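From the thread on structure requests for the teaching lab: each student submitted one protein with a one-line request. Submission from student K.M.:

"Model Pentatricopeptide repeat-containing protein from Cinchona calisaya, tokens only."
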Amino acid sequence: MARKASPSSAATTISRTVQRGELSTLFLKPIKPSCITASQHEKFLKIDCKNGKINTTDAFNHFDHMLQMQPALPISSFNLLLGSVAKNKHYSDVISMYHRIFEANLVPDFITLNILLNSCCNLKKVGLGFAVLGTIYRRGYFPNIVTFTSLIKGMGLEGKISDAVQFFKKIVRLGCQPNVITWGTLINALCRSGYSEKALELHRKMGSGDDVSGFKFQTNLVCYSIMIDGLCKEGSVDKAKELFLEMEEKRVSPDVVVYSSLIHGLCDVGEWEEGKSLFIKMVDQGIRPNVVTFNILINALCKEGKVKEASGFLDLMIQRGENPDIFSFNTLMDGLCLEGKVDDARELFVSMAAKGQECDVISYNVLIKGYCNCRRADDAMRLYKEMVRKGYKPTIITFNSLLTGLFQDGKVGDARDCFTDMQLHGITPDSCTYNILLDGFCKNECLAEAMELFHNLEKSGHDLDIETFNCVLDGLCKAGKLETTTELFDTLPLKGLVPTVVTYSIMIHGFCKRGQLEKASNMFLEMEEKGCAPNLVTFNTLMRGFSNSDRATEVIELLQKMAERKFLPDASTASLVIDLLSKDERYKEYLTLIPTFPIQT
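Reply posted by the TA:
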């Protein structure tokens, strides 16, 4: 006969937690009349639970049936059910069931408590996990490495990385030997939280036995894979390469996941050729690249502007029997659009269905943006109407691309209609949307409309960033309203905004356009004093102002400053210098003063 559980058990702790509302995800299921036959119940426990093929409704129905059975079932039967529910990641249901076991005066054993502890930790309630650990000790059980691994995982999920490392070292010192799962759990926690180098440091110590515990541990493929991926994502590609070589030295054969992670890391830091060499090495080793590997290479090539080579990898993927996914096609389409080959992108878009891949909203967004960038707003609108007709829900990216394209083509009325359509689709404009509208209205001589929108945004308490003000300042400047522009610029510090190089360049252009060169020059000095470095546009803008006033000396001084900062002049710089020299009798003297710029490689 089952004896009543001690009131000091974990169930009491969890019950109180539920009462205090600390675990809002936990709930108690009411007992329902049971209509389950003995044979159904036996099959459920012996086959379904062991295979993990259950759903929560079936689990609770059988659980209710088990609680009503007389004589009472052994706790091992309940453990089988709880374990299966936990494997299906219904952790709050596990805790609810445990509470009911406690109320039914059944005594949980070590396995029950381990399942409960693991569920608490997976719910990011590691404090409750330690409460269960206390119950384990009080019941006279000895926690094992599974118990400790669950706690380490819980601390990792809660971001208590330092605690997890210290706890790991503590259990080693206590003589509890971690297994590969424990080690992998700690490594994963460190790498997921951005501490891959710390994981590498721990790996070195544990691998050599130099840790204070004296424990020596051999890292397996999974752990190497996690560390290499983490190091690459954090930009420590050289250390990832060292770890890769260490794997090979220790005869731990890298798999496709390791190769893909390192190739991705190499491509991200611009070492494309080395990434390609590693790909070739992987194939030579007989390791079959998967769709992720190919996508990494296709994406890297498109970013490098090598779209033809990227397309070749797509063909190679298909030849090797690897089906491209939607990311493969979208990436290649985007690469084609960036090269201005929007018609080729459209052909690829149409061919997707024949290659067994259905397009998605991202596919439409890529092509719509491509049309807009090529000043083909009408084609973009037709594609937008097609996606809506086919049941694809447009996103904020869709509308921001369309608005940009329509304003660029001077279709202000269509842009207004598009903005209205955006709201009809339930899409909330973001700061980028408003900046596009403000910039579009200003550049299409609708300054009054832009200012009305700007003031409405201010009144509504909308969080306006410096880019928003740049749009308005530029519009006011180009409309010749320099006084209003200056007044608005002076309010920026009061709004907690710091002018950028774009902001200063706009103001300098405005002063130069009005012929107020001293103010423009002072603005240039002010930006430097405030730590905002001028760019080539800023230099060209101020030089053009001086050039138009035949102030060659100031132009030469600015050229010398450019050379000191290793700025390379562009076509605009060369044009204004030639124009200035051609109309000044002292051009030979000025030629000797023009600095030498490094040749661009």
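TA comment: Residues 38-51 form the longest helix (14 residues). The mean pLDDT is 85.
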